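SEVERITY: medium
COMPONENT: batch folding queue
REPORTER: lab tech (J.R.)

DESCRIPTION
The queue accepted two submissions in a row. Attaching both inputs and their returned structure tokens so the on-call engineer can compare them side by side.

ATTACHMENT 1
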Amino acid sequence: MANYDESQIQVLEGLEAVRKRPGMYIGSVSERGLHHLVYEIIDNSVDEALAGYCTEINVEILPDNIISVSDNGRGIPLGKHPKMGIPTVEVVYTILHAGGKFGGGGYKVSGGLHGVGASVVNALSEWVKVQVCRGEGTHEITFKRGKVDVPLHKIDDETKCGTKVMFKADDTIFETTVYDYDTLKIRLREMAFLNKGLKITLWDKREEGTEKQVFHYEGGIKSFVEYLNKSKEPIQKEILYIEAEQNNVQVEISFQYTNAYSENILSFVNNIPTPEGGTHVDGFKRGLTKTFNDYARRFNILKEKDANLVGEDIREGITAVVSVRVLEPQFEGQTKTKLGNSEVTGIVNSIVINKVGEFLEENPNISKSIAEKTLSAARAREAARKARELVRRKSALESTTLPGKLADCQEKDASKCEVYIVEGDSAGGSAKQGRDRRFQAILPLWGKMLNVEKTRADKIYGNDKLNPVIVALGTGIGNDFNIEKLRYHKVILMADADVDGAHIRTLLLTFFFRYMRPLVENGNIYIAQPPLFKLSKKGMEDIYCYDEIDLDVKLKELEEKGIARETLGMQRYKGLGEMDSEQLWETTMNPETRILVKVELDDAIAADEVFSVLMGENVEPRRKFIEENAKFVDNLDI
């Protein structure tokens, strides 16, 4: 037996635990974790705004990827801490779970990481410099890798209050220390929407042509809904806005209906995004369903014999932002993605019933338009149910419940299985012959499938292009979706490397995003990367290149070995069908050598907007998008 005694028990002091296991505190040491450091410092400034003391936050990305965050809040206390005996600002930055967010009266509600944010940033930075002014001069303290380097000292006689934090992330911990401007821009814009009147400035000073943006929305989440719907056609011009407080829970809700067929509900707790929803979203949905059904009954829109409208009917086409502020939020899981406070459901529910009920009665024309859309959605849902049952009955009568063209794999453990959704029958035939049938399944699709952005679910069931995908994956779609039933944990889209192939991939990605979104969020969707070129020469092993850049690199490497370009045979593949089964396996399907691109959902708001613009009914936003982005096209396949 290995020796296990008292000496094996390790005690990590101070911030050593954070440096030893950074993933426990910021999720990962990837680019996502790096940006999380910035959010933690910004959250502390936003908490000052929530408390009513801060109106401006300035974020700068300085040369060498140094971050500076300054605010005009009260400033972190500077005096000696009564318990620790050292300056309070030093306590905040060197001791975990030290802050004004644990019931000491510093903050009523907080979005910060429960007091560990500042110290975690300090622990994971090469250095941190904090400057604080509380009306009697600016004081500065500097840290190196979590420990005090230069003690607190006065540097000027400034009287304007505020806090400025500068830090450089530790490159011995993070995979990259280069910040992405767009990633920060998206989060800061969101924070400005959620805190009406708060002015947030983001300034990238890393290059001469600096980029600067100011986010300032007096309309708050009402402006947020307007922003989300800028590419959609609203059926109600007025955006409904609710603001109320009950039992110390502050509730802000704003929503608007559009002619879209999907719902888009964004939710937040103390400014923290909750993509999995929670009790605040449950309360909103319940209140909305009850209010609309009561209204429809009262005004005879629903007859006595009619069944009640269900929630999905009422929420079709809605864009909503639900933001609550809770004294003691309880989140489910480490990632804070779902609110668990049970009392919030009833509070939000009652507020929605009262406020939305008043709105519907005071705006009969808008109410009628929404009612017509919900009734239309109910009819489509019933049609979808019948189509779904018809498909199920038909499948049950056939010799197998799986699509006829699906070449299934032998493995039954879904976590080890992958399915290639292949463009074209000829490529599908090559893929079937070249695959490893133990764990690889092939589903060929021919031609362009339905654009689901422009249709309801009742048109999807029975569609000869999409239904085989639904049946093969086994999860169902929309509200029937169940990821536990997924038959293949890797769903790989394999299409030609041309405009038609890109269109087919886009149509499939639209379908997955709108009707099987958990597959995207869970990282189950991949895009195969077939080669564009093959270089060959007698006596030399074939070389495959995946794009023009790869081709230039390979050609230069061969020239350095004395092989002239003119002596090489070069083939440009026009489609997957030009490769035989052995080539397809070698270049695109062999797990040892293939390149797969995982489809990830980093920004659901941006993804929703892109699908609406590129695949939706509105022509004008699409035309504008093409005009603005045409200059970036390098290879237009005509």
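ATTACHMENT 2
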Amino acid sequence: MKPLLISLLLLSYSTFAQLTTSNLPILIITNQSGQVIQDDPRVRAHLGVIDNGVGNMNNINDPFNNYNDSVAIEYRGSTSQQYPKKGYGFETQDAFGNNLPVGLLGMPVENDWILNGPYPDKTLIRNVLTFHLARKMGHYASRTRYCELVIDGDYRGIYILMEKIKKDGDRVDVADVHIPNQWNDTITGGYIVKVDKTTGDVPYQWTSNFNNEVIFQFQDPEYDELDPLQSSYMENYINEFEAAINGPNFADNALGWPAYIDEQSFHDFFILQELGRTVDGYRSSSFMHKDRNTLAWNAKLVAGPMWDFNLSYGNADYCDADEIYGWQYEFDNICGNFSTSIPFWWEKLQEDWLYEQNLRCRWEELRQGVLSTAYINNYIDSVALELTDARIRNFQRWPIIGQYVNWNGFVGQTYQEDVDFLKTYLEQRSVWIDNNLPGNCNLAIEEQEFVALHHKAWPNPFTNQLALGFSTFGIGEVVVEIRDLSGRLIEQRKLGEKFAGAHAIDLKSAQWDRGNYLYTVLFNGTVIHTGKIIKI
């Protein structure tokens, strides 16, 4: 069957582009159900994947060597469905329709996948860049692989195979609420929720008690997979956080925001949203997650993963989103006529000078590394080089170079002009943030004599050594513990009695395996600081 199928496909899509060989993997989807792919429900299809490995060419006549089985597929996305180049969500399945976890294109084994078809982003790079930066900053973000896609004989161009955001040890690594442990704590985590607009069939959502245009939804588990105690717990947790941050003690360690959120994750989420000046930032497709308390020592709300950056980095022409100046978290003051609003806490957090100071320090730290202009430009150039041949076919299929597509903030006459605009925007936006982000931080001094405002580990991620700084607020015995994610104690440092103030220790990790660890600072036997560190 396959030689005949391939011949028919070649005849069908040769009108649009001569896809015979590619340096990118080739995905071929063939409808099996007689129904065209639609928004809902999913339809049955066959997926064949040709991937001969990095550095090797892939030929349309090569055997399906990465995947050769069924999928259930549908359109995905909300606003993006207006574009002729659709995005797809699919599950890999066996012949009986059961989930079939596989490692597509070298990614960790799973069964839920996304094919993102960048259309208004003519660089084809914005999402991939953002997820890469987030991972380099120490957070999970969807892994990505470029590929070329054919559906029912129609060449569809360059797509990005991406991991769907869900709970998994290799994705958002939080506990399964349905699996009890020895403490029988299946209420406090793990959950993935999002701030988003309402599209499609959403079984349940709730709004902020302070703004009914801030809409929360369950991502994983979905609402109908939770019992009432579980869904109520997470809804109440967010309600309590909002009440605390809106209260008179909003900056208090025990009563305010520090008791509810993971500070550095909120810093990094803010930094990437502001760097991208993401027009839907904070108010749509904005994810957060919380682990189980007994597995992560009173786990807090973590911002992320990052998502949906096609209309960012100057690529939206409304509400000042293409300007290099101004703060995106103040979007409601610029454009207040939308059905969704930005949660008030992103602005409220700026009122705490300790949070503001730590945010400034984190920005300066990142600007010396992964967010430096040189690093970002080199990464963009490397991706553009990878796409050199495939993008020609893509824009033969979708001839939009030099054409306005909703809602381009810039229209280059060549692909290179679009790439150059992206690089220039990032450089100018970074300089504006350099000059306008409040706070005062000197990292050169900080790394010699740490002035801990709350707690911080640096560098993070690290290789063989890191420093841990923390504050105490009285006189007492201090113990620092490092554990792996299973709870096994890796190292314990008894520091003796410490006075109120800032303290720092060095940790050597040559004997530790690569991976994620949790640190805990105990003060007179009570946990006062926790955080995650990553050895690479």
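NOTES FROM REPORTER
Residues 415-436 form the longest helix (22 residues).
No errors were logged for either attachment.
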